[in-house]
Each structure stands twice: as C-alpha cells, then as structure tokens.
Amino acid sequence: MKKSLLTAGILLLTSVSVMACPCKPQTPDCNCPPPPPKFEKKCPPNMQRPPRPDFNMKEKLNLTDEQVAKAQKLRMKSDEKIRPLFDELRSKETQRQVVIRSKIVQKDQIKTIDKLDKDIAKIKKQIHKEKIKNKKQFEAILTDEQKQEFQKLKKERREEFKKNMEQMKKQCPCPPDKKPVQENGKV
Question: pTM to 2 decimals?
Fold first, then answer.
C-alpha cells in the first residue's frame, strides 16, 4: 500500500512540474512550448476564397518576346525594391503584436503601437507607390492597342473582384464593422 501511494505521489509531482513552467514564454532560454494561438472562427467553415483567375498577359495582350523580356526586367527591379519593404512591414507588424501581448503600462503600449502603426502605414504607402510606378513602366512598353486591351482587362478584374467580395459578404454573417477571420487566422 505504501509503495503504490508513494508511486502515485511521485507521478503526481512529476506531471505537475512538467506542466508548470517556471519561466515566461518570452525568455529565450525557456524550453516551454509557446501558448497556443487563439483564433476566432467568425465565418462559416465552408466559405472559401474565389479561385484566382489566370492572368497570362503574354497571350491576352499579344506581347512580343522583346516586350516580355522588358516586362520581366521591370518586375525583377520592382521586386528588388519591394521585397525589403515587405520584410520591414512583417517585422513592424510582428513588433506590434508583441507589444499588444506584452504587459507594459497601457500608456506606453499605446504610444508604441501608434508609432508602429505610423511606420506600417508609411511602408505600405512606399509599397503602393512602387507598384504604381511598376504598372506605369509596364504600360509604357505597350502599344496603343495593347494599352486599350490592358485597360479592358483591368476593368474586368475590378468587376470580378467586386462580384467576389459581394459573394463573400453574403456568405459571412459577420457584423459590417468586423473583418472576417479565416481558419488560419489571417484576414
């Protein structure tokens, strides 16, 4: 009887000590698993993103090989400029989430979040400007006929986007002031 009681006590102590972590998950020397993320399912699970349309510009705009080569160079230049901005954006958004989860004084937290929000907005504006610049450079290599067809394709894409957004709004019972959260936690 004493052996079984002693064994049960030891098992209880080891299981409690394994489950209780003496350090905070934020410390780098902690071997504890991070707390599981909390995701809210606000929209029905059967709601899916609409399929991405196939945008084969070479065929649709009847681009020459020279135009395709120029377009690829433009895309590569733009990617070289935008990629670091996206990396910085991800970093700032991660910093913002860390601050939100931190236990610093609320006043300091608000100041830090405001500064990060301004930085994030600035980076997004730079990315937007670079994309607009790339689009204008792309349109500059097109002939007048190709430009007209490109404008037509852009208009069709906008209409398709609006249609898909309306379908998603009908599927999602979310209040209009809340953004729907997908299963992976992204909006």
Answer: 0.58
